[in-house]
Amino acid sequence: MNWIKSNPFVAALAGGTLVLCAALYFLASRGASRYDNAQDEFENSYQAVSKAESLKPYPSDENLAGKHKELTEYVGKIGELRSLFDTYRPSELTNISVQDFTGKLKSAAEKTADELKTAGCELPEGYFLGFEQYRGQLANSNATGVLLYQVEAMTRAMQELAKARPSKLIRIYRESVPEENGGAYAPGKDDVAREFGFEITFKGSEGSVREFLSSLGKTTGDNYFVVRCVEIKNERDTPPRISDARFESVADTAPATTADDNPFGGVFTLPGEEGLAEEPAAEPEEAPAEPETPAAPEADSSRILAQVLGNEELIVLVRFDLVMFLPSKELPKP
After folding, report:
1. Per the domain annotation, does 77 fall within a domain?
2. What is the pLDDT of residues 296-313, one digit of tens each?
């Protein structure tokens, strides 16, 4: 302290120098930090520009306009494709009273049953269009809309089955929906349609099976069906037996023997009577007949298995979905 009092100028100069050095150190530290940040930003920008330059096409104004045009056309094509399914996209499923639903279901079941019976199809006991649980109970009032949509679709499916003329309807199975048990349907983020699963098991000829499957694949009407799987089984598990054969009676077509077929000729003489035998009169020479075209051989009708194989009917299980397309979502602008 005495030295400071004795040398005030030197002490003030030393203190000022110390403060100035501290200030310079602080400023230099901040400058270095700003430099590091600026260098990092430069490196990031440089990498972004390098990546952009490597893209094809290069992000120029001209290429940007071309990309925007392609995206606009793509969105337009998606809209056109989506409009094709508007027929299978109901605007709203309105719930009706449970009494009205029961009446419509009963009417549809009776109508399809009459058509199937007229076509010669045997129905299972208690047939009710796959909604057998509602024969003796009422449906949930919040589910009548979606159930009526399924009833209308199954009515069409049964009418197509009647046109195919199967011999027997064995079983109809319908997957329940959440609304029947008081729940609600919640579509996924990317879902565009809702599917209702059905199974129909019937017996019929190969032609009836082919006709029914083809009818499900047609996109006519207000319902869109998608066949998921088909199981086909022959009604007979064993090969044909001999007793199954049906023989055809073949008429005896062997020609009768005539005198011209005598291997000894037309005249028979005893030894020593050669002179007494009258020689047959010489027949006039005739022009050689033209060779006849050989007749085609008759079809072999003696095949034992011709009336056995291929007459069995098929037992078919068809698993298909009724697809209901959900309301369209607005597409993002390009």
Report:
1. yes
2. 555 544 454 444 455 689
